[in-house]
Every structure is written in structure tokens, then in C-alpha cells.
Here is the input.
Amino acid sequence: MLAYILKRFLLMFPTLLGVLLLTFVVVQFVPGGPVEQYMAEAKAGAAGGGGAEGGGMSYRGAQGVDPKRLEQIKALYGFDKPAHERFFQMLGQFARFDLGRSFFQNKDVWQLVKEKLPVSITLGLWTFFISYLVAVPLGVAKAVRAGSRFDLVTTLLVLVGYAIPGFVLGVALLVVFGGQLQWFPLRGLTSANWAELSPWSKVTDYLWHIALPVTSMVLGSFAVTTMLTKNAFLEEIRKQYVLTARAKGLSDRQVLWKHVFRNALIPIITGFPAAFIGAFFTGSLLIETLYSLDGLGLLSYESVIRRDYPVVLGTLYLFTLIGLVTKLVSDLCYVWVDPRVKFD
Here is the structure.
């Protein structure tokens, strides 16, 4: 087991390096880099039309600009150095967990992540727990009543919910319940006077604000877990040991909860780490934008649009590292849940 864990950790480094290298190379050819944006703002629209060849590289929009001023701006953003030198300098910073400093917000990337993380944690935790609290019992009920009217109706509802994109549902909920009926607020996680409210009023105000965003994210997210739970239970119910247990006189309830339940939950439990972490960092960009929630999804989107490369590469490094570690934890969960699994 220790040899397997060590091998996986060693494989993380080339994977992480490949992701960073590919992204860094792509970044060099994306038009409209930070130098161009700065010069465009400085000229207040006087420099018309030039396209760009990449952050820190020469571009047509620089025509007519004082070369000395241009070199000063490049040095300010670190683009006065060759691309390979900037890449290895970035790797050295990341090795020390120094994610750099934002070009446009004048803050460390770590500080920006800490500021945006509460919003993503809020959406992620509620989405994760509500999804599993609904999906697992529903999947078990569907497996026990497989082929019944209940199974068919719930399957139809689950698949319809899965087919509706979260942002489309979010727009519909926002228009109906936030605009026409005015039952829920249109934006933010709390009201403007939240600090003045009593403790109980703060809780209700918070739940009142997150009701629509969480509903938009949850409705389609538990479809896969529901069907996975159902299929896992059906597979276990049809195995020989279940027939043997019933032949010994055990009731259906005893067979289901003492034997089937433990074995059927193996693929679901092992997916907990990935689902738990993924709920924080995926699928919330459009919801955050729609409901004006300033989280990590919106931060990543704005950083890409503004070509804020330290934020783009820093958050990519952090999320990739978290993803690789989470994948390792998911694999190790198989051994923890099922001792029959060996990595030899």
C-alpha cells in the first residue's frame, strides 16, 4: 500500500507539470494580454484596432507608443523576460506555494481565493449534502420497487431534471419567484442589514437567499447518484448470497440493510471525496453570475477575460493539485470500504 501511494504521488508531478506547461503555452498565444489592456486603457481608445499575439509579445496595438514606456510596462508585468525563464520562475514560486499577485486587483492570489471561498463553500456544501440526502434514499426506493409505477415516474422526473441545464432553471426560478412573485431575493447571500439582525433572523435570511441558487444546482446534480444507487442495489439484490440469506429465513428488511446495503454503497462511498471537492469548484460559474454571488467561479471567469495570468495559473495549479490528491483519496477509499481490493 505504501509503495502504491508513493507511486501515485510521484505520478502527480509530471501530470501537474504537463497541465501547467500546456496552459502556459496556450496563454502565450491568447490575444489581448495584460500589457495590451494596460496600454489600451492608458491611450483611452486612441490606439484603434490592433490585434494581439499574446501576453508580453509584440502587438500591433503598440504602434505609436513610446518604446521606453512600452518596455516599462512589460517589466512591470514581468514580460521583459523570455517565456521559458518566466515559466521556470513560476514553477519555483508554485513549489513554495506562492501563487503570485494579481495584475489588476493588487492582491495576492491566495488572498483572492480566501475571499471568494466562502461563497463556493456555501454552494458546494448545500449542493453536496442535499444531493446525497435525496439521491441515496430515492435510489434505494427505486431499486426495491424496480419496474413499478413509482420507479417509472421518478425516473422520468429525475431525467427531466437532469436534462434541464442549471442556469436555465436558475433563470426560470429567478424570473418567477424572484421577479414576478417576489418571494425570494434576486442577488447576494445576505441582506444589506444582515449585521443588524438577530441570530435567528440571520439564519433565516441566509437560507432565504440561498434557496434559489442551491435549487438551481441541486435539481440536476443528483440524477447520476440516484441512478447509480439504484443500479448498484439491483446488482446486489440479484446475487446468490441474497437468495441464500432469504432461504435462511431472514426478512427482506434484514437482507436489504444488513447485507445488500453495505455492498451496494461501495461505489457511492468511494465517490464521496471527488463529489465533495467537485461541488466547490465546478458548475457554479453561471449560477454565481446569475445570482451575483462573488465566488471562485466568477473569479476564474473574470481572470480569464481580463488576462489576469497570475490568478488564472495560480488557481489552476491549486485546483489541479486538489483534484489529483482527491483522486488518490477516492482510490484509497476502495480499500477502506472493501478490504478485498488490493493495489499490489
